[in-house]
Amino acid sequence: LLILAFVISGLIARYYLVEEPFQLNQALNFDYTKSRPVAFVPITACPTLEHIENIGFHSGGGVRGIPPNYKLRTTVALTLPESDYNRHLGMFQVRVDFLSENGKSLGSLSRPCMLEFRSEPIRLLQTFFKIIPLVAGYVSESQTLSLKLSGYTETFTPTACLKVTIEQRAEFRAGAGIPEVYNAFLHVESDLPFFKRILWHWRRTVFVWLGMILFMVELLFALLCYGAIMFPRARSPGTTRSSESQRSHQAQA
């Protein structure tokens, strides 16, 4: 009964009570043949891609990856080499567009960024202390920029794809002012409503308490239905003697 109660508790908590927030982690492969490097991240499908790679994704009308009215927190992590070009480049812009299945933009978030400034003496001192790991190849002269973009709320039109674009400052001509990038990653996470967020953070407690309640209900039901079989009543000595006397009187008659 206890095992059955916890199995049912897990199924109820997983499919009916506790809702898992939407999470997406994806490496970004920017197309540097464009004047503004672009990377697409499919949620359900990316119809704007020339070669669609939707392995593990489903396309079609009505398919939704993110529930409506959920706020999204987007983080773009860029690892940039501390090259002379990047250090002298200064500011550039990163934009994330939320696209529908037909390629229409549902919303956009952007943020300017640049390499963290380090003076020449500081860089020389850091290089001196890290000379052995640098020569051995365990570390590299790079910085990772973590750009947090928030403020987009999922609409009733499903978001099918994310488009990440690196843009230059206005003073640069097309194709110039783009930073050198080692690698890039995108992380998207939804914020659950208040009550669902409480259930998600306390999901293990909900699972245990629900399992114990179901176990008590099963035990009570078993006692009510099969109590006489499981716990037969013992006859008292007086009842036994009276039944034996009745049998003897019936035999004499």
UniProtKB/TrEMBL annotation:
Q: Does the keyword Coiled coil apply?
A: no
How does the protein's chain sit in the membrane according to the entry?
Answer: Multi-pass membrane protein
Gene Ontology, cellular component aspect:
endoplasmic reticulum membrane
On whether Lipid metabolism is a keyword of this UniProt record, the answer is yes
What's an example Gene Ontology biological process for this entry? lipid droplet formation
Q: Which InterPro entries match?
A: Seipin
Tell me which UniProt keywords the record has, alphabetically.
Answer: Endoplasmic reticulum, Lipid metabolism, Membrane, Transmembrane, Transmembrane helix
As for subcellular location, the record says: Endoplasmic reticulum membrane
User: Which ranges does the record mark as transmembrane?
Assistant: 206-229
Q: Which residues form the signal peptide?
A: none
Instruction: State the protein's name.
Output: Seipin
What is the source species? Opuntia streptacantha (Prickly pear cactus)
